[in-house]
Write a structure and sequence with these properties.
Elements lengths: L1 E2 L6 E2 L5 H6 L9 E5 L6 H14 L4 E5 L4 H11 L6 E5 L4 H6 L8 H20 L3 E5 L11 H17 L3 E6 L8 H6 L2 E8 L2 E9 L8 E7 L2 E5 L15 E2 L4 H6 L4 E2 L3 E6 L5 H14 L4 E5 L4 H10 L4 H7 L2 E5 L7 H15 L3 E5 L1 H8 L4 H14 L3 E7 L20 E10 L2 E11 L9 E6 L2 E7 L3 E2 L7 E2 L11
Parallel strand pairs: 3-7, 3-8, 4-5, 4-6, 6-7, 14-18, 14-19, 15-16, 15-17, 17-18
Antiparallel strand pairs: 1-2, 8-9, 9-10, 10-11, 12-13, 19-20, 20-21, 21-22, 23-24
């Protein structure tokens, strides 16, 4: 049971921590809740969580099954690790003798004949056990015990009232179809939880929840080998604390000069540029400098293997493995086709709140787009970045643009508005060679240097030269010399 901070009422946990969070503490006792969704969406699994959570607290729990035999339910539950020792069953499924005897009814309809023993069995068990929790699967099957829709409606309403009057908190499922809709069940219940599975992933949505507030919208859901996991949609406004807006430097003199000292803590910086230009390496330079201050950075790699990033960093003088050993760096590969955006946000949230991480780098934004799979990219990324800002975390977003040279674009997927700072890297064709340049396009909190500088990566690390004032047309990718070649820049 869970105490809700908004009321004095003790709530009943669903057994799924993330879902309890969505429901602001759990289910209200003595009420009825409909769990709807197609086959394989996790309805039975949620019922198992609900009943076993109660059994662990010493509550009386009852599973009424109309579709699947008790034996099969116990077998499947055991595979998932559920202990049903404290759960009592009422099995209303037909046995094999129903088919072999081929019963027929000449005077009364099958519904009239079968309804009375079914009702009698349920009443007997409820009166004997007086359960605190009841899970009924599936209520729509009772449709076949009623001669018409009106009688079905009365039967369901009477059953739910019977359970409520005896103090039970009830979870029941429906299987909506063209033949048996569940609209009336939604009206009769105190709450409706909708489970769905699509190409975009699994999700749970609370459609109705009488007597309490809840977190609206769709929340990511995962069915695992040990049960159901729910990852509530991140609401940035519910998180945050005060922090000092000090400056976070990169340790590279030229970059910090361009940024007038560095980037401010609790801001979002987009590091943008074409492939191979040095975006991740520049981000790792901020991580190296943070490690020198004893601060922790977490890098989420979506497109690149962790080992590849570590090897490249080590070859450029960034002691990434040593930083990991000291606990000042975490490098995590996240597979976008495995996780949803809410699940990734949950992973980041745990990293920040449990390990006091000060810098989070997401590499890359293009890879993150695979997490949302057709959902609004900017909406999810905005929620994540706003949460991190509120927590005083410095965010680095690595963004790749397609053009190698020419046709300058800071970003190509409309995320510039999320950034407090934009640092861009460019390739230049200069004297028959492909060179690099770095510049600052945007900085909200303070001023910045408006000129571009030469940017070079060598085994000694990143070198940034003085401003390229002798060149013009740099953003086109094909610069012209505005002064004699002898005045070219030197590394600083």
């Amino acid at each position: 049971m869970i105490e809700n901070g908004n009321t004095d009422e003790i709530r009943r946990s669903t057994g799924v921590a993330g879902l309890d969070e969505v429901l602001h503490g759990g289910l209200l006792p003595g009420r009825t809740y409909l769990v709807r969704g197609g086959p394989g969406t996790g309805k039975t699994m949620l019922g198992l969580h609900f009943l076993t959570a109660g059994a662990r607290l010493g509550e009386r729990t009852l599973f009424i099954t109309v579709e699947e035999s008790t034996e099969q339910i116990r077998k499947d539950a055991g595979v998932l690790g559920f202990d049903l020792g404290g759960v009592r069953f009422v099995d209303l499924t037909p046995g094999s003798e129903f088919f072999t005897k081929a019963q027929s009814y000449d005077i009364f309809t099958p519904a009239e004949v079968e309804r009375e023993p079914t009702t009698r069995m349920i009443v007997k068990e409820i009166e004997a056990l007086r359960p605190d929790r009841v899970f009924l699967e599936a209520m729509t099957q009772f449709r076949y015990l009623s001669p018409d829709a009106f009688q079905y409606h009365k039967q369901v309403l009477s059953l739910l009232r019977f359970l409520e009057e005896r103090g039970a908190t009830v979870l029941f499922t429906s299987e909506g179809s063209d033949i048996t809709t569940d609209e009336h069940l939604q009206f009769l219940s105190d709450g409706v939880l909708n489970l769905e599975s699509s190409s975009a992933g699994r999700a749970v949505t609370v459609i109705k929840f009488r007597g309490s507030d809840y977190e609206p919208g769709s929340h990511s859901l995962r069915l695992t080998g040990h049960g159901m996991e729910v990852y509530p949609r991140l609401v940035p406004g519910q998180h945050g604390h005060t922090f000092a807006r000090d400056v976070v430097g990169s340790g590279i003199r030229g970059i910090d000069e361009q940024l007038h000292g560095g980037i401010e803590r609790g801001t979002v910086t987009v590091i943008t540029g074409p492939t191979g230009v040095g975006k991740t390496t520049l981000g790792m330079s901020f991580a190296k400098e943070a490690a020198a201050r004893g601060e922790r950075t977490c890098v989420y790699l979506i497109e690149e293997a962790v080992e590849t990033m570590l090897e490249r960093s080590e070859s450029l003088g960034i002691p990434a493995r040593e930083m990991i050993a000291r606990g000042t760096l975490s490098a995590v590969h996240v597979e976008p086709l495995r996780y949803g955006p809410d699940e990734l946000a949950h992973i980041v949230q745990e990293e920040v709140e449990k390990r006091q991480t000060k810098i989070v780098m997401l590499d890359s934004v293009a890879g993150y787009r695979l997490f949302v799979q057709g959902v609004d990219l900017a909406k999810h990324l905005h929620a994540l970045c706003t949460y991190l800002r509120n927590m005083g975390v410095t965010v680095l977003l690595v963004n790749e643009v397609e053009n190698i040279t020419g046709d300058f674009a800071a970003t190509e997927i409309g995320i510039s508005h999320l950034a407090d700072n934009i640092v861009f890297l460019r390739y230049l064709e200069l004297r028959g060679r492909l060179e690099r340049a770095v510049g600052v396009l945007k900085k909200r909190v303070s001023g910045f240097e408006s000129t571009l500088r030469e940017f070079d990566i060598s085994p000694l690390g990143i070198r940034v030269g003085r401003p390229l004032t002798e060149l013009r047309g740099i953003l086109t990718g094909y610069p012209d010399l505005a002064s004699p070649p002898g005045n070219s820049s030197r590394a600083a």
